[in-house]
Amino acid sequence: MAKSKSNSAVLEIQYGALPYRFTDTGGIEILLVTSRSRRRWILPKGLPVEGLEPSEAAAREAFEEAGVRGTVRSEPIGRFTYDRRVDEDGRSISCEVAVYPLEVVRQHQIWPAVWQRETRWLAPGEAAALIGDAGLKPLLQAFAAKMTARRRPASRRTQA
Question: Is 120 within 8 Å of 32 (Cβ atoms)?
Fold first, then answer.
């Protein structure tokens, strides 16, 4: 954890994966998972792992929490912050998450958190509507728009 200048403020650094895949029509789908305790829809994310690059740690979280493997980019698409509850009294820690896109090539039937989490493939708009982290929504939407535009056939791109 990285501490700020104030002794009371703690900022925890995390790495998250944005698992995605392309549809047959050139669109994109985003994979969300539920959090373990409150069952909110989130991206797989976790703390740094000694010996792993940030993008590799994000890819590891994607497998552990959502059962997916694929190609992860080495540069994040952005960052967002959220407050993570750490105890039953509602105390929280501020977290900053660097988000790394992960193009899914395989989704496993069994993975470490299969009994603790639900996964769901969604269109970007549906995913953004379900995600509670306000700072993540614009990252997700901008990434999906960029990837969809790249993937469209040339004949569609030139039409107005």
Answer: yes
Domain span at residue 20? 2-150
Q: Which residue has the tokens 């392309």?
A: 22
pTM above 0.70, yes or no: yes
Distance of CA 132 to the CA centre of its chain: 12
* Main-chain phi, psi angles of 131, to 5 degrees: -75, 130
Q: Decide if 159 is inside a domain.
A: no
Is 18 among the domain residues? yes
| Residue 110: alpha-carbon gap to chain centroid | 20
Cα–Cα dist 85/96, whole Å: 14
What is the gyration radius of the CA atoms in the chain, in angstroms?
Answer: 16
156 is a domain residue? no
- Over residues 11-31, the pLDDT tens digits come to 899 999 999 999 988 889 999
